């Protein structure tokens, strides 16, 4: 994420809150950097090296090696829980109940995903070229489908979304290298691989306005949901014909 895109996304996800914030996962490092010095941060990942990397981004944060689905944290401890690019890697039912448990009343869960914008004409042309060799290439499976679990969660009944545009400059060698490193290109024979990369170079030549590089477009989509603790505190109502156990 660029600095301006990160600032816009964070401003929306965090708002005026200055309370304690939980940052989950190595892929949320940009959030840790953006909030360092402004919030009391707890930095969590199940991998120790990942936690160390987060701590380098926010040295005053509290490091914690733990799974998102089983957080060793007291209930109602945080104003915000933030994560980027990683929600699909968790067990959604367990993770969402843990996020709800550690959030204070009125606390919010913020999730961000950066996804390539394939609606731009030159990107469409590039995808068409690559899919001549592999119909499934550049399919854009980023993990955002997992967010249906948030939409259906009783712990977070009201979900808002907002998108932010992000443009990444890319020159001709970098675009050719980007395609060359894909699994699709690596599986090709040498002759087909050379032909593919030549066509990728032609897409660049016909799309760029030299000496300016092309701008690879991305959309940063953010989800923001306020916690509802009703589901955590509701009494258990058994039906009249429910099972009775007598000891």
**Largest beta-sheet characterization:** 7 strands, mixed
Kindly report how far apart the N and C termini lie.
Answer: 60 Å
List low-pLDDT spans.
none
Order of helices and strands: HEHEHEEHEHHEHHHEH
Q: What is the number of E strands?
A: 7
Strand order of the largest sheet: 3-2-1-4-5-7-6
CATH homologous superfamily designation? Vaccinia Virus protein VP39
**Count of runs of 4 or more consecutive helical residues:** 10
Per CATH, what is the topology?
Answer: Rossmann fold
How much of the sequence is in beta strands? 15-25%
Number of domains: 1
Gross morphology is elongated
CATH class category name: Alpha Beta
Helix content: 25-40%
CATH architecture: 3-Layer(aba) Sandwich
What structural class results from the helix and strand content?
Answer: alpha/beta
Q: Provide the gyration radius in Å.
A: 22 Å
Textual characterization of the structure:
With 247 residues, the chain is α/β, with parallel strands linked by helices. It has a single domain (3-230), classed as 3-Layer(aba) Sandwich (Rossmann fold), CATH 3.40.50. Helix content is 36%, strand content 24%. A seven-stranded mixed sheet has the order 3-2-1-4-5-7-6. α2 (29-35) links the parallel β1 and β2. α2 runs parallel beside α3 (48-57), α5 (121-131) runs antiparallel to α9 (190-207) and α7 (172-180) packs antiparallel against α9 (190-207). The longest helix has 18 residues, at 190-207. The protein is elongated, with a radius of gyration of 22 Å. The chain starts with a helix and ends in a 14-residue tail after the last helix. The mean pLDDT is 89.
């Amino acid at each position: 994420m660029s600095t301006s895109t990160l600032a816009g996304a964070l401003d929306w996800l965090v708002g005026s809150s200055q309370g304690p914030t939980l940052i989950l996962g190595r892929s949320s490092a940009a959030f840790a950097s953006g909030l360092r010095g402004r919030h009391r941060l707890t930095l969590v990942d199940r991998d120790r090296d990942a936690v160390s990397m987060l701590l380098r981004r926010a040295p005053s944060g509290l490091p914690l090696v733990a799974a998102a689905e089983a957080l060793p944290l007291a209930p109602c401890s945080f104003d915000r829980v933030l994560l980027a690019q990683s929600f699909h890697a968790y067990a959604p039912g367990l993770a969402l109940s843990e996020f709800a448990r550690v959030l204070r009343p009125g606390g919010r869960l913020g999730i961000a995903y950066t996804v390539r914008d394939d609606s731009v004409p030159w990107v469409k042309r590039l995808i068409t070229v690559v899919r001549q060799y592999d119909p499934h290439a550049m399919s854009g499976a980023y993990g955002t489908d997992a967010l249906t679990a948030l939409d259906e969660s009783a712990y977070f009944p009201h979900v808002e979304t907002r998108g932010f545009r992000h443009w990444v400059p890319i020159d001709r060698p970098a675009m050719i290298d980007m395609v060359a490193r894909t699994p699709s290109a690596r599986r090709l024979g040498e002759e087909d691989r050379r032909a593919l990369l030549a066509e990728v170079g032609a897409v660049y030549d016909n799309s760029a306005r030299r000496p300016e590089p092309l701008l690879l477009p991305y959309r940063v989509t953010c989800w923001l949901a306020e916690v509802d603790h009703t589901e955590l505190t509701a009494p258990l109502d058994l039906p009249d014909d429910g099972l009775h156990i007598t000891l």
